[in-house]
Amino acid sequence: MLVELFTSEGCSSCPPADVLLQRLDDNQPIPGTQLIVLSEHVTYWNQEGWQDPNSSPVFTYRQSQYESSLGVKEPYTPQFIIDGTQSASLENLKNLEDALNKAKGNAKIPVRISNVTVDRSNPQVLHAHIEADNNPDKHNADVYLAVALNHVESQVLRGENGGKHLIHVAVVQQLDKVGKLPKGKSFAQDVQVKLKANEDLKSIRLVAFAQETAQGKLLGVSMQKP
User: What pLDDT shows up at residue 201?
Assistant: First the structure.
């Protein structure tokens, strides 16, 4: 299943959620299920004294789309989204546990990442092949590819977390829509990703997932550490 955490280094409530996400990633506490985690840093805390270096308007917009589809009044951090259909916060860890166990029973379609190679002429360019099996859902889906740093450390100098040394896992640097998965169809496509200057194969993970269009239910997800 896919566990997304919307977080910010400018939010004093977020560091415990960052730690919890790392525990989910390391310990895999749901038997028989792989938890694939992503940390998505939003921008709306940046005006409160600290510019989160991992934040992006892409993630702020993605969270706002979730609030619309899930009927949440307004964005907040930290917020966990499980398989695109359930929202949970740190205020009630039982709700998060229940959401994870509930999502365990949801059928998924296989998604695969293969043939990950570095471009011979440019080591900052990755090539990969993404496949998704036949979409049995009643709705069309989008196929996404995320590039995330496995481990990020940050010394926060100002804002609510000023003076704290923060550690993050699976910090999304890029999130791109790479194709469509129509209902009743499968997906297979070669994709190209340009890494940022501070990224190399040893520091990243690739996460591919199929999700109902308009940010709905997750249909399938896969992760590969090249």
Answer: 83
